[in-house]
Amino acid sequence: MGNAYCIFCGCVGQANVGVVEKWGRFLKLAQPGLHFFNPFAGESLAGIISTRISSLDVKIETKTKDNVFVQMHCSILYRVIGSNADDAFYELQNPREQIQAYVFDVVRAHVPKMNLDELFEQKGDVAQAVLEELEKVMGAYGYNIEQILMVDIIPDPSVRKAMNEINAAQRQQLASVYKGEAEKILQIKKAEADAEAKYLGGVGVARQRQAITDGLRENILNFSHKIEGTSAKEVMDLIMVTQYFDTIKDLGNSSKNTTVFIPHGPGHVRDIGEQIRNGLMEASSAQICAE
Predict the structure, then answer these.
(1) b/e string for 272-285 if b means 16 or more Cβ within 10 A?
(2) What pLDDT does 3 receive?
(3) Which of 43, 51, 91, 197 matches a 20 to 30 Å C-alpha distance to 180?
(4) Per residue in 181-206, pLDDT tens?
């Protein structure tokens, strides 16, 4: 009569590790593939552990150094070390809760040492501290921490509103400064333009009066040379009378004329001539002084 054998088989999938026991004690790890177990020898497949990367999202509420309550969203990427899968299988009943507890402990130890602004700037330092602590602790249980991400930092709604108002006020203040500088530059440029216009206007008037003076002088000299016995005063009076009547004529021919009251008579013409002569004499004196 031959011996009868009863052998069971089991299959371990890819990215998994099987835990094999013999009479209830750990025997070996079964790599992916088909395996045979002898139940009469007490061998059995106790369980299968995945070696894929797993993600654990943790939300921690804590307080900063400047007494602002914040809620931090942390994402932990971890996996079972294939060669130490037996430790992961036997040592921890609930590894996710254990990882979460360590994250809470490290974050609540570091964040109260920072202000809110420092927390936003140095959130990578907090993640690094959590990573170092978890690697040291969870490595002994057969877990490897791949990466830790500080996904979000959410302050209390009232604090966020206050921060937005502060930012808006600072931007309005800056805009007011820029607007004031622009208005200042505009006023300065306008004043410079007015000064330049007045200066050029004065230069134009001076040149106009100089041209009139030169023209009168030339007319007087020509008239005196052509008609002997005439004095400069007589010629000047004649030119003034002519200019006077030309001016009255222009006023009468203007299409937009209005009522103008002017003194009229030979005596008034003589007064105008004396005023012009005095002006010419003053202009000549000023030119001599300038030279």
Answers:
(1) bbeebbeebeeeee
(2) 45
(3) 197
(4) 888 888 898 888 888 888 888 888 77
